[in-house]
Amino acid sequence: MPHIADAVPLLPSLDGSCGNGAVSVAGARLTWEALADRANALGRAMQGLPAVAVEASPTLDTVVAVVAALAAGVPAVPIPPDAGPSEREHILRDSGAVPLPSPSADSSVLPEPAPDTAALIIYTSGTTGAPKGVVMPRSAIAAGLDGLAEAWAWTGDDTLVHGLPLFHVHGLVLGVLGPLRVGSGLVHTGRPTPEAYAAANGSMYFGVPTVWGRVCADPSSAAALSGARLLVSGSAPLPVKVFETMQSLTGHLPVERYGMTETLITLSTRFDGERRPGWVGRPIAGVATRLIGDDGEVVEHDGVTVGELQVRGDTMFDGYLNRPDATAASFDGQWLRTGDAAVIGPDGFHRIVGRLSMDIIKTGGFKVGAGEVEAALAEHPSVVEVAVVGLPDDDLGQRIVAYVVGEGVDAAILIEHVASTLSVHKRPREVRVVASLPRNAMGKVQKNLLR
Length: 451
What we know:
The protein has 451 residues and is of the alpha/beta class.
């Protein structure tokens, strides 16, 4: 695939020459030619604005507004539809984003902005303070999409189907800008229901583990995806049981990948390569990674030793808006400190253990990865969902606590199950049965709320 450095427009479809493609959102449809007309007309009215606020609901209007901002070279600021008043006010004040203007009568093609122009300002979840605006340049988006197109053999012959939120990297950058860059069709289902996925007749499907779990709970809908060529899971670890059920019902091993708002998607298993439950593959083209231990030294790639994952390459953000302090603190030289704990195997495959601040539990002198304990608990038939955290403990420093959703859960049996599966020191000291786990819009468990 060409890269932006080769002077290829970020979205080639906007010149109106690719009129055979189409974008569908919740049943409403636009051809690429119609999308180009609407986006260029709105983009002309945006020129000169500092940034534009886009109410990122799953509609064609959202797609048109984001694409128009890209055409105009004006940063788009996606606003989550469920953002509370204080969050919304912070995003608008911090970004300086203004409401969308009325479209111009002129829908002629706008000149391509420079590759280093800011394309998006996407706000983080704010789990460690006020949300920070991640400034993402056009060149990074182009590099990330081209790298994934190469890894997934993604071409204009594909039709991508998903129902993900349009205010995150997964749903917006991969799920909307990806098809417009590579030339494939797009069907956004509105809501990511199993029935909607089954009816869409796509060749590629994106989902988060919650979506894939629901698809697997509906065997007839899952079987309807057997004609696809690629099922992609991301934004949170895919439970092994769901991975195996997807293979059984659809005939496909899912592709798992890893990324973050600041780096886009940097790791993935490949269309033509091995897919291993719990592992997110190797770096895409233009990306490099390393692991750093507590002592600041590079960690051995032995598939066991845990370190902080650090990333550098072509898909990087420009920094946090108005936060040079936070930007500087997030880098170790040219390497971004992701804050995620990982292991890398001798073959270069990566496994994400969890957040260093949340998922590495220091208990009784040992370091335990919460994800490993969660995977062991998820194997027990009484467990439907589980999240493991470390809570303060006067004796151990932290004690391992499991929050479990299930039926007929017996805490003693689960604790013994982990002790017999993993090292004894990795067993939960406490099991708390809950009706549900708190999750964000992308299906990630919000462990800070559990703690």
